[in-house]
Amino acid sequence: MTIDMSIPGSSGLLNAVGKRNMKFFSNRYVLALTGAAGIGGFLFGYDTGVISGALLYIRDEFPAVRDNYFLQETIVSMALVGAMLGAAGGGWINDAYGRKKSTLLADLMFALGSLVMCAAGGPYILILGRLLVGLGVGIASVTAPVYIAEAAPSEIRGGLVSTNVLMITGGQFFSYLINLGFTEVPGTWRWMLGVAAVPAIVQFVLMLFLPESPRWLYWKDEKAQAIAVLEKIYDSDRLEEEVELLASSSMHEFQSDNTASYLDVFKSKELRLAFFAGAGLQAFQQFTGINTVMYYSPTIVQMAGFTSNKLALLLSLIVAAMNAAGTIVGIYLIDRCGRRRLALTSLCGVVISLVILAMAFILQSSSSLCTAAANGTCQGALGWFAVAGLALYIAFFSPGMGPVPWAVNSEIYPEAYRGMCGGMSATVNWISNLIVAQTFLSIVGLVGTGLTFLIIAGIGVLAFIFVALYVPETKGLTFEQVEQLWKERAWGSRGNCQSLLGSTA
């Protein structure tokens, strides 16, 4: 089905928007919506982080797991499989049934999966629970950014969506606290995994009293309900402007009986460009090595001469805290510096820090550089060099390449495809995550740790080029302006005359 997506009077749309100066903390209602939706991000972070500590005690309780590395890998990775499935299907669920119902479904998956894991009598029931939790993670990874973005004023949209990323990193930090806190409690791992049901239930109850996304309601022709929500976000002058933008856009959008399909993403030049930029950002977020650096952090500390296992757990807390703190910096910068500039700056620092890490490992493995007498001092210095590289990596990655891919993907797609394309790009993220997790140690075994980090640094350079060429700046733009931007990128001066759907390259 093809339709004309050009907006009446769109040639002046980019200049027709009035002054937009809402501040981040100026509307408590928007902050409440963001906080409630962000619980999904918290669960996302908690459930992906807690298994590292819980697995130590699962192995002690189940001999079959202790003696079977495949079972251990399956317990860890089954949540990732569920996340891929949840993200792939979650986009369609978002567009068909709305952001609110999608969030409620994710909460059911979180709570059910947590309780199944808590009560598991064997490893296979535990794996089932991990799959259910993974489905919740996948759906939440699509839904929360879109729900927040569609309720957020354009001038603070990036910061509000990045708050969800802060909740993810906060969930990871909290999972490490739980891992430490329950070490001496009977049934340790059951508490670690089962406690996630509590925030899921809290979010479920909160969402029952919160509205559906106003843009989704307007798109589904529930205009009165949409305007009622918008009235709580904007003053009267701004409300009139926002409704006019919605009306002019929806005049040529799909209505509630739409037949949007996944094939449309590849048939339409505008959608292809947007999806290429969004999915590319998600892939590079994983391939620039955040999970490998987090994984290897205990080894880096051991290089510095600290070998205590408790110190390794403490390091996990410190790294997670740095990640969360960096995300707060990103929330402040993303609507001031812009998504594109923040990503490019982040990638510059990521590449430099990866080179530092690589050189530390390469020099450490080259024993000829240190005499026998000075070997300990030399190795210690290299270890601190590596720790500096780790700290620099987290400091640059967390404000930029942490939140930017999620923020950009929440705002670059048309309403009829926002959930679908967001789900597809999130699936790319999870698949990339799986590829990195499954290949990192193999590559280390083949070429060594130092060269592996150099390879990741090379990928960081490619990511910089990709962002510079294919990712436009969307800071402060309305959704309608972003759609027009992609039309102009696809068709140049003909952008106002081309249809969004059914157009081919």
TrEMBL record:
Keyword hit for DNA damage: no
InterPro entries reported for this sequence: MFS_dom, MFS_sugar_transport-like, MFS_trans_sf, Myo-inositol_Transporter, Sugar/inositol_transpt, Sugar_transporter_CS
Domain Major facilitator superfamily (MFS) profile: 33-475
Key words of the record: Membrane, Transmembrane, Transmembrane helix, Transport
Transmembrane domains' residue ranges: 29-58, 70-92, 104-125, 131-149, 161-182, 188-210, 273-296, 311-334, 341-363, 383-408, 428-447, 453-471
Any single Gene Ontology cellular-component annotation: membrane
NCBIfam families assigned: SP
Name by which UniProt lists this protein: Major facilitator superfamily (MFS) profile domain-containing protein
Organism expressing this protein natively: Urochloa decumbens
